[in-house]
């Protein structure tokens, strides 16, 4: 199967397919003219890779997970499971940090709004005392 056909069947761009190959995630054979030819089994693999990218995983982590697809070894499956759990935990920690950052920004926005309205808890504030940007 040529690259355009794999792209059409999977929804991945030809550029993405070349990237996946460069990263060692998929394989192709080359024709005498240098064109890539993919086995039909690569279609399912590309679909899985796209799901893994959609789940927030990077190509290095995906490369660690793919041996699970090609192996019946229980240790390989356990390692893949552990990798997914660690990535989920990393994403959860990132989300927690983002929520904390958003809450800090909300507090600054609230303080700015109070300042702009002159409703600071300590009474009116002199100009330049606090974070405010008036258009």
Automatic annotation (TrEMBL):
PROSITE patterns: HTH_MERR_2 (PS50937). InterPro entries: DNA-bd_dom_put_sf, MerR-type_HTH_dom, MerR_fam. Signal peptide: none annotated. It comes from the Bacteria. Gene3D superfamilies: 1.10.1660.10. Residues 1-68 form the HTH merR-type domain. Residues 116-135 are annotated as: Disordered. It holds the Pfam family MerR_1. Keywords: DNA-binding. This is MerR family transcriptional regulator. It comes from Streptomyces atriruber.
